[in-house]
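Question thread 4412

I'm putting together a teaching handout and wanted feedback from people who do this every day. The idea is simple: show students a protein as raw sequence, then show them the structure tokens that encode its fold, then repeat with a second protein so they can compare. Below is the first pair exactly as I plan to print it.
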Amino acid sequence: MTVPPAAASTPAAAPTAAPTTSGAGAGKTPAKSSGTVKAAAGTKCTDRVDYAGDSRSNAEINSIGETTGTCPAPQGGGATAGTPKKSGTKCTDQLDYTGDTRPNAEINSIGDSTGTCPAPQGGGATAGTPKKSGTKCTDQLDYTGDTRPNAEINSIGDSTGTCPPVKR
């Protein structure tokens, strides 16, 4: 049996990776390639692309988008930064955003659309008291009057290394 010449000389096509539609970047415009997301009039780049973990301020990012007409690519982790959002839990109930100037609705909207809670900005992640090794935050500080459950307070301390400020 002979193999037709066209089939014998044509190499098989290499598989290509398709963009993912689940995980941290789900629901957001993919931001892997620099400057490919067009800035839309009246829509901030920070509302179109996940900049969690980017050290630049929202104002700087949006200014770049307005000036160039293209949203800048995230720096410092971008779409993969942040904490996975727990199903049925708001990001503002999952992480300590004390000191973050963004409204809770904006923070929770980012979590809902990306599946990842954005990193706290403006000192939120480090506000509070350093957690002592082997000691629960609720044993280290007086949280009387704080409406959060002790487990949530201690979880924040365990994950950040900082006991959150008391919320009254």
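The second pair follows. I'd like the answer to focus on this one:
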Amino acid sequence: MTDRDPERGFNGNASASDAETVEVPPTARLNVFVLNVVLALGWSLATGAFSLLNLAVGYVLAFLALWLPCRMWGEDTYFRRPWRILRLAGIFLWELIASAATVAILVLRPGLKFRSAIVAVPLDTKHDLGITLFANLISLTPGTLSLDVSEDRSTLYVHTMDTQDAEAEKRDMKRTFEDPIQKALQ
């Protein structure tokens, strides 16, 4: 005769359904990047060539091989981040080209009729890397220059070359750069 409790399993031990609800702490999760590098090195060992090109091919193949079962690990941030970073780079390149054309038109137009302003852009991101990246992307875009970040890191002050509507300018900067930066750094 056994002591069986339907809630706890045999002899008071946890049942199989309890094991399914146990959450793995973040420190115990598999570091997918390290595994990707190890697999890339394994690829180089298997092919017998340790060139940079062969390591890159091994890294891409390992990335694809690890992407297939990524849902088993529960978190696929590692696989989303490169695409988010590429999207941010594409957005920056587009804004760089568009704003360079706009600045060229403003400067070449007779009379220099534009209104510069200093705009206080409220920051949603509080991470140093996010704030730095946002400020640098703003400064690298022609027609805008980041001046300072407030002491409490809640506001970025930006000089704009031609501002018709300061509120629309703030929304545009946040939508164009800050939102994709936050997604890329998640």
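Top answer:
Good format. For the second protein you could add a caption like this: The two ends are 54 Å apart (CA to CA). Confidence is low (pLDDT under 50) at residues 15-19.
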